[in-house]
Amino acid sequence: MAELAASEGVTFSPSLIAEGVSSYPLQYRSTNPSNSLPLHIRSGSGSSQQEHHHHQQQQQQQQQQQQHQHQHQQQHHLKDLHVLLFFILHHHQQQQQQQQQQQEEEKVKLQQEAVEVG
User: Tens digit of pLDDT for each residue in 2-56?
Assistant: First the structure.
């Protein structure tokens, strides 16, 4: 597939893919906002046991959000690749059709010339 793309003059290099990934909006990238706990948890109100339990729950929620964001990013990326592949295939088919037309036209010209000469 990559060879076909290269022969069509479409570069399909890893750097192109990396560029696509780095251009995603920041909100899709996994961040770890461990510092963004609500103030009432960080200040020592209530017993330390409750505080600890609450903190664990929050971390679990954050991990789930990150996993979801990662899946979302992969879906985006797959969609981009599908579009690119479709474009390459479509472009390739168009070029083949044009070549066939040109060949047929040349054959007709040759036949006409042959008739004129004969």
Answer: 555 445 555 555 555 555 555 554 444 444 444 454 454 545 545 445 545 555 6
d(CA 66, CA 90): 36
Query: Structural domain tally of the chain?
Result: 1
On whether residue 118 sits in a domain, the answer given is no
Query: Chain-centre distance of CA 114, in angstroms?
Result: 54
> Would you say residue 91 lies in a domain?
yes
Whether the full predicted model's pTM is greater than 0.70, yes or no, is no
If 0-12 CB within 10 Å is exposed, 13-18 middle and 19+ buried, where does residue 73 land?
A: middle
